[in-house]
Design brief:
Strand content: under 5%
Shape: globular
Number of strands: 0
Largest sheet: none
Low-confidence stretches: none
Order of helices and strands: HHHHHHHHHH
Amino acid sequence: MKTPSISRFPPPELTDLPKDIRERIEAVQEKSGFVPNVFLALARRPDEFRAFFAYHDALMEKPGGLSKAEREMIVVATSALNNCQYCVVAHGAILRIRAKNPLIADQVAVNFRKADLTARQKAMLDFALKVAARSHEIDDRDYAALHEDGFSDDEAWDIAAIAALFAMSNRLANAFSIRPNDEFYNMAREPRA
């Protein structure tokens, strides 16, 4: 069987990329042991790659507020809503690692309301999915509900921004047919001790 392409558009050769992008991809490869296909697919457009990952890092790697696992929950839930195979698989792996839970990503992707989450996390995902699907309906009541669940204004901003960024990312991954790396499927699947 022929190995499927990583994307509808041929990815650039790593050696042909600008130095900053090549170094970023090599750093990810060193850390994970492989190059996530999304990096190569988006590197086709260097300026857009830089802009996307700058915003990604500003939202996903910042300290404080939401935990890194909660940020990944938002990505998995909104990506499932948007039928984005790449992001559900890739960020599902990251969620399993960050939550130290081999079950959580599948639960969140299929039906977060039945997942092993806190009521606060379910409220966070309710809001995130509303941002992803019906942002025009968001009003003061939505923010009041988040405040009742203990979220600050900055955390509400982060929930909305992560959901919105990944709504865009999901659409690009789907439109470009970016294939998840096989390596993601088995990451952090060991049973809990």
